[in-house]
Amino acid sequence: MSTSEPNQENKALTALSEAFIAKVEAQELRVGIVGLGYVGLPLAEAFVRKNLPVVGFDIDDSKITHLESGKSYIKHISDARIQSMFASGKFSATTDFEGLKTVDAILICVPTPLGKHREPDLSYVIATTENIAKHVQSGQMVALESTTYPGTSEEVLLPILEKSGLRAGVDFAIAYSPEREDPGNPEFETSTIPKVVGASSDAERAMACALYGAIVPTVPVANLRTAEAVKLTENIFRAVNIALVNELKVVYEAMDIDVWDVIEAAKTKPFGYMAFYPGPGLGGHCIPIDPFYLTWKARAYGLNTRFIELAGEINSNMPGHVIDRLAEAMNENLGLAMKGAKALVVGLAYKKNVDDMRESPALELIDKLRERGMEVEYYDPYIPVAPSIREHPEVEGMRSVEWTEAALGKFDVALIATDHDGVDYTPLLASVGLVVDTRNAIRVKADNVVRA
What we know:
This protein has helices at 4-25, 40-49, 61-68, 79-87, 123-133, 152-161, 202-213, 224-254, 259-266, 291-299, 306-334, 361-371, 405-408, 426-431; strands at 31-34, 54-57, 91-94, 105-108, 141-144, 173-176, 195-199, 218-221, 342-346, 375-379, 413-416, 434-437, 449-451.
């Protein structure tokens, strides 16, 4: 290779970067977002609000149909917001990936779940990248937003994309900017949460910062691996601290100490403490899953992530602890065995104020209650009918019960798994002999309430 080739490649990348940034500044750059779920849809909205045209891509025909009808399929995103996106003339959605040729930036927002043995499942990322490789054009930028282990962009995405015959860092750019969505949190949205941005070169990083900087402050980091590690670190931090308070809950229960009272008092300290709260287990698309992406990758370096695995073990054991506590309370308070009794699980979503059931501990609680011989139903104002869940097919088609004293009166015990705001627990307390509260949802003193 002659010494002039690297210089020519640098010049090509610099020209690519400058042209890309000029398009952003002129609000002429077209953004393509692959995956219109909890991450991709609000991201599309954020770009549209800043007058950047967006084409949304998804393999799910029903999502495209909903969007084109002005309907949202995500509870915390209203129909009016979808209609406003289309009314702007800046948004379109399609299942035809041929349209990737027409955009300047391709942002990948697809799931990264775990396999049966807690190994990373990159099948969605790989399939999407293979599809992009068929259509990628010179001058484009491809950015992954899905949470993954350090090295994914370089080791997985780059080789697939270069099958197109184009070269990363020369003909097209690669970046990584992890999603930081918190569905249902009214205090934060996509356009108010800073975006971490990593790339392999200054020119590519400048492109990514220009794009994301159009909608939100950016936090540039040294390279792709660092950006990938940032997202894992954020979620590992949460998982470990939740495991700590879950363990403290079990210890303090044995000492007849209310862990919720302890946390409320501890958080009055203005420094050196951050409040985390216990629960019946971990749920959602991030916290129960992401730490094990690092655990898996660390093994390739001959390293064990003992702290992360211990936290995972503690959090995974919480549903079992809750069921044991419920069984004890039924025996002591009602003189009833679990077998043949009727249980109501209050809350099916993985956290309050969303309709997202991914990895919800409520699903495992339902399984465990049924294993003990109980008849189980649920109530969730956000999920009137339970959709299909791959790991829990038995819940599909279940319907939320009515929230009336008459309907609730048939249950022997209620188990609060999710503490949606706006739920009036008065009918529950008046109708059910035992309420097991895993979320500190009931703040009034009542003889029939037991915390777990």
